Protein 1
Amino acid sequence: MFDAQDDTIALNLSRDADRELLPALFETEALDCRDEAAIAALIAASKATAIVLRGRSMGLAIAAVHEKPHGDACVKLTPGSPRSMSARAAPRVIDLSALWAGPLAGHLLSLAGADVVKVESLHRPDAMRDNSEFYAVLNQGKSNVALDFKDTHDRDNLLALIGAADIVIESARPRALRQLGIDADQLVRTTPGLVWVTITGHGVAGEAANWVGFGDDCGVAGGLSAALHEATGQMGFVGDAIADPLTGMRAALTAWEGWSSRRGGRFCLSMSQVVAQSLAAEDPVALNSSLLAWSAAVGEPFPTVRRRCAGKAG
């Protein structure tokens, strides 16, 4: 997190390519992209809104602490068409997502009895594989398929998998789907009962649809750091990528409810707005209560996770 002239900025530089964009972000060639002090000095001389807007247009994951979240937490983009009563007792899920929120949604659906197939790019697998233990937790119980999305035959196989699915979870920006030849809205309209869940950083409307967002910076955009500062006077991240698990839980519920209705549809969840809605909720435990009720109804209680004090191992 860096202080600008009028606000504090969260800048996510998790990819090597992100640092290569910094000279363009600050409109200077005289920058050592690994020099945190130099980056801080350039941001300190800048207006937060200008830096955030320029960074997002360049594909950087960046947010300002006191910005207003964009979009709604969950939007139904495309109405579905009703399906007949299925012989399947639980849905078949195609999980095209990566990292945390989408795979968590797929994991929760798997715990509820769904048949989940995780589909990855042969050339660009899920980056969470770098954290092998966490990847294993999020994707346990799923079948796994690796496809070459540049290959016509593999793209046809992907469309066939989607055509046989009840639920699709993905976290791609619109341009990436178009490059794969996938028209999610058309598939929802022509496949009775198909539930399509799109997870984005900041929604699907206007320029925000193409903004990159990860859990930490989306949490900042959603108001977590502002709430921390208001409550404690301290500025910082509230926790590790809280936007991801909040959105993953919401996505799992949305997908299950859409499948249960037999009407389907395409739903978009914005991670930053999910955070904002959670902060503003009059009943902050409502989502947890819904999850517990859902898990009891499908006969697979979610595991209890032992609480851990900050800074303590185990």
Note: Residues 302-314 have pLDDT under 50 and may be disordered.
Protein 2
Amino acid sequence: MTAMPIFAGGPGPEDRSRSIRRALLFLVICAPIWLVPDLLGVGHPIVLVAAVVVLSYVFLRHEGRSLAILGLDMSWRRLGELVAGFAGGAILVVVIALVVRLVLPFPWAWNPGFSAGMAAWSLLWLLCGNAVEELVFRGYSFERLIAGLGHWKAQLVTALLFAVSHVVNGWPWHVALLGTTVGSLLFGLVFVRWRSVPAAAGVHAAVNWVRDLLLCDPPTVKTLVAPLSPRPWTSGEQLSALLIMDGIFLVACATLAISISRRPPSAHASPRP
């Protein structure tokens, strides 16, 4: 599939170079957020949401553009995109849980220690924390990388940086490489399809929240029901669960990519500065 002219960046090499430089500058300014371990745990991440929205506004304002380019204008439509993204992400993880239930031989049980209050607080935290990640990785910088590099190269760069951020924050490198890169591709395609950071943030938050709700072993207070193993999961079982998740994500990615490729060119264009 060829690169898609989704966002305006100018046809000339200088315009593309400028777009790349501005994307990198944005990422460098945001580096304390994605390269400093556990920064999201300092205070409530809603403060960082506001900070990155303001930073995005400054960059866009300098170019004569508005936050609507990223789907960040205040409207009921954007709220609907957030809700729709959340519903789509939740459905994906429910499907993953059902397949895991069929493939792995673990009994599933309700968690007597489940706390609805803690689950609700976790949802609020994830909505804000994952919104920060989407604003940094699938917001202004991603839109400018698409203008400068093309869609799929921008996806690759963003996915690698997203994986690096998770490794820095303590994830095993192989889990980050196999898991977060596929997640980044999915969230990026959601952004491209609807040109909406709220839609991508909704999918991201739902994936993490419903995963905690249905797929944690051992369970936490945020886990409602889960596969309970009387022993530690073997490496093969862990790999099977990861491949199931990635496989279903990739099917969703392929569906989105086909949908994007079939849209008329006029639907891909953003207003020029």
Note: The radius of gyration is 19 Å.
